[in-house]
Request: fold
Amino acid sequence: MIAENLQRIRAEIAAAARRAKRNPEEITLVAVSKLFPVELIREAVDAGQTVFGENYIQEAAAKKPQLPEGVHLHFIGHLQSNKARLATETCDMIETVDSLKLATALNNHLMKSGRRMKVLLQVNIGRELQKSGVDPAEAEQLLRQMQSLQQLQMCGLMTIPPLSTEAEASRPHFRELRLLANSLAARGLFPEMENPQLSMGMSDDFPVAIEEGATIVRVGTAIFGRRQ
Ligand SMILES: *Cc1c(COP(=O)(O)O)cnc(C)c1O
Reply:
């Protein structure tokens, strides 16, 4: 079941990339395994999946030692600064940096172990009151403040657009994130990246996200089924 789902999603990723005249290999599929047991992650690993997304740091830390070698974890949930140490020990990328306080906490813990870590800036592209992420207008200032945090490799932007039943409703938000990333890149705010990463698109709208430039798509339900 999971193997077939993965095969179908990889085919849809490739088809969307072709429509946009992009190379499918530049798109990373993050299998969102939050609230699913390790057995199902292993099943996905057996089907060739290597990158997984988790939303809750305690859950990710509990699963980590049970996962096969070579599995990469992306943290995609809201992260509090007091969980920064656990996140640096558990994950390979944090997609949801959205404050200088959190970025500084991550940097401090990484400094102690002499490591660097890939991160994304989470942008609240729909400017929704209750949603995490920086306001698009504040992204530049936060990125400037983060330039001195040497342990963080700032790779690009991540967003969760406003909830909708229509995939096409996400398109203008995905496009806006891409334009924002391009303008920030032109100002030198992703100094280590030739092209910034764009993490956008979930089960219901990842093909649209790819057409609009996503380099990371985060897909849960379409791989693992409905969460309880
Ligand atoms: C749960 C979650 C996903 C996956 O959503 P699905 O609709 O199950 O594909 C992607 N991104 C984030 C940030 C999530 O919390």
Observations:
- The CA atoms of residues 53 and 74 lie 5 Å apart.
